[in-house]
Amino acid sequence: MSYRIQFSEAAEDDLERLPSRMARRVARILDLLETNPTGPPVEAMRGNLRGLYRMRAGDHRVVYGVDLETRVVTI
User: Fold this and answer.
1) Mean pLDDT of 13-38
2) What's the pLDDT score for residue 28?
3) What is the value of pTM for the model shown?
4) What is the mean pLDDT of the chain?
5) What is the chain written as a DSSP string?
6) What is residue 39's predicted lDDT score, i.e. its pLDDT?
């Protein structure tokens, strides 16, 4: 069963400003998050961002939260 991806307004704005090559890399990450948002190569955030996760896309990071009950990943 897959997860639904939802974007904050800030994330949508950031995604629109990415160069096309980087946007494709981020799209591949989003595909991975739809199936397994907490598995490798995901890193859990620490400190005041505890409860969120991140994945690397080159020099960029995709930071997101996961609601396991509703199966929603919020970017």
Assistant:
1) 95
2) 95
3) 0.90
4) 95
5) -PPEEE--HHHHHHHHHS-HHHHHHHHHHHHHHHH-TTSTT-EE--GGGTT-EEEEETTEEEEEEEETTTTEEE-
6) 87
* Domain span holding position 41: 4-74
Residue with tokens 């400003």: 17
Instruction: Please report how many Cα atoms fall inside a 13 Å half-sphere around the Cα of residue 74, on the Cβ side.
Output: 10
CATH code for position 43? 3.30.2310.20
Q: Which pLDDT belongs to residue 10?
A: 96
Domain count, the chain: 1
22 to each of 14, 50, 67, how far by Cα in Å? 11, 26, 26
